[in-house]
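User: Quick sanity check before I run a bigger batch. Here is a single chain. Can you write out its predicted 3D structure?
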Amino acid sequence: MESTRTGITQSVDPAARTITVLEPNDKVPQIYDLAPGSPIHGIKAGEHVRLRLAERLTVYVGPLGELVPEADGTATTSDARVLSVDRSYRLLTLLRTDGRRETFKVAREVKLSEMQPGDEVAVDSTQVIAVRPGQ
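Assistant: Done. Predicted structure follows.
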């Protein structure tokens, strides 16, 4: 899945291939790994950026904020609730804990037939695919 985020660059580490961005509704900056081939030259601290992110969706039915088991044996916290599932267009609309609504176009391997409104999900921003200046 992919999504877009905006924020202010706090730092860029070309050697580690990371970018730290403070998003408008967050109090703590997020550190994102850059996907191989993602150019970061010219991006400076203090600059407004738009990030295109590759994200992983974990679906888990349970209370919001509960630990969600991952396939690799780790755990994460659910941070969104399913609002709607459009199986024909493969769209999943989520409500994040911070109030943001996001709609994702999901891959064919995602079992939308097993999802329904109210399911708790965790969305993990795994890598930045593209970074560009702007809001």
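The longest strand covers residues 120-133.

User: Great, the batch can go ahead then.
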